[in-house]
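Subject: Sanity check before I submit

Could someone independently write out the structure tokens for this chain? I want to compare against mine line by line before I put it in a report. The sequence has 391 residues.
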Amino acid sequence: MLELLPAPPVDPLWNLTAEYGADLRPERLNLVLGVYRDHTGVTPVMRAVREAEVRLAEHSASKEYRGLSGNTAFNRAMLSLVLGDDVPAGRATAVQTVAGTGALRLLADLVRQTRPGATVWISDPAYVNHRPILEAAGLAVRAFRWTDPRGLLDDLRGAGRDDVVLLQGCCHNPTGVDPTREVWEALADMAARTGWVPFLDLAYHGLGDGLDEDLWAARALAARLPEVLVAVSCSKNFGLYADRTGCAIVLGSSARALRHVETALQNAARTLYSMPPEHGAAIVATILQDAELRGMWRAELDGMRDRIAANRAALVAELRALGCDGLAEPLARQKGMFAGLPLSSEQMTVLRRDHAVYGTATGRVNIAGLPAEQAGRLAGALTAVLEPTAV
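---
Independent answer below. Compare away.
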């Protein structure tokens, strides 16, 4: 049987990470995976997370199954965090998931069940796992332009009443380019008029302009539209990468409209992984329900955002000093963990081979993983591989 298995495609990010691990050059830079690193190059455990873990260990709660929806205190806390306190009672429901990836898949299954003929529109370029998740759920996928606001709106005029549009709520991966509030309002108008459903992916809130600012689009769409789907990850802004903590949120027009939604999500989870792990959700619930820990977490999150912004500013300054304004200016306008570089796959190979700088084949590099003292070397490497017309 196994001899008949065709060679499957390798995951591009983890394949590059393995290649980085085998590279013996001491100056190599790993800017592939979307993880936050501090000035020492380490992905830290947040102080609020450590304190929450101490409190949880002292209580020694049972390891008994939590149920298909996961930790209900976590679910309530996430609804409040993401949507604020203005959403009327009964308009939203949530289940804990295996990270944001699990939330995307559960919500994709819900789309397939409720809108079997739907096309899901994703950005071009898109997060590398969006299309595979949606297609694995049996959904048709189309792309719309992302970095050109006029093109974005023009393309989505082709979305039908039964369609779903997958939008990253902030700090777009891989480009770092976010719509203005005016474009978000135009999208809300279009969705209200046409009937397509927004499907928001929230993975980086708090790392762009600030927590509430980064959640503005999600809250605005929730206030304007009868139905919104939201996949939430706690990997980046709580640093819970390995604990796989996330949440699937569904907003409906009323409690009656939502009466079967949680059961549908539970049933989808049951066939995929049964129920999510408890530890990360218990940490987040503990932090968000305690004023002291919540304040500690917000302060740490602000510090992470400031470091990312400082890294971007340093890289932009170094590029400008080298006369590379054509690259510096768009980078200065981007937000969040990633920078989208106008480099071809071949140029990214040269960057990796000749300069020991590892980014994705599509030109994405992780600004949050850049040691501050390496900004000058990265700028020099980018300038060296760019075509003269792009400098």
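---
OP: Matches mine. For the report I'm noting this point. The chain has a mean pLDDT of 94.
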